[in-house]
Amino acid sequence: MLKGVNRQVLEVSEPDSRYFERILFVVKPEFAALSAAKLLKEAQAQVKKGGSAPPKMGKPAPEKRGLYVAIMVLGAALAGTILALVLK
Predict the structure, then answer these.
(1) Hey, how many other C-beta atoms are within 10 angstroms of the C-beta on 22?
(2) Which domain holds residue 75?
(3) Does residue 3 belong to any structural domain of this protein?
(4) Bridge-partner residues for 27, per DSSP?
(5) In the chain, is it the N or the C terminus that has fewer CB atoms within a 10 Å radius of its CB?
(6) Is residue 41 in some structural domain?
(7) Would you call 25 exposed, middle or buried from its count of C-beta atoms within 10 A (0-12, 13-18, 19+)?
(8) DSSP characters for 40-79?
């Protein structure tokens, strides 16, 4: 879904993909004044490059899990200590 009324959209039809029939690029406002040829050239370069991968979500990497566990344990210990001092 595109929000806003004043957006410049560039459509690349028939990219070299068996999965997609077209790709839509939303042009940043500061580059809207560039020529159509320049924008098309940049869009085609992005299509060939494949763009960037979507961000990965989910479990942290194995090397970071230990850090997360350590932080959680230290946080719980700190909270317990504060609670014990307050309840004295």
Answers:
(1) 10
(2) 60-88
(3) no
(4) 8
(5) N
(6) yes
(7) middle
(8) HHHHHHHHHHT-PPPPP-SSPPHHHHHHHHHHHHHHHHHH
Q: Which amino acid is at 67?
A: L
Same domain, 12 and 44: yes
Pairing between strand 22-27 and 8-13?
antiparallel
On the CB side of 30, CA atoms within 13 Å amount to 0
For 31-75, the pLDDT digits (tens) are: 888 888 888 888 888 877 775 666 666 766 777 778 888 899 999
Same domain, 38 and 14: yes
Q: Are 25 and 43 in contact (CB under 8 A)?
A: yes
Give the Cα-Cα-Cα angle 22, 53, 63 (nearest 5 degrees). 165
pTM (2 d.p.): 0.46
Phi-psi map region of 26: left, alpha, beta (phi>0 left; psi -120 to 50 alpha): beta
* Counted domains in the chain: 2
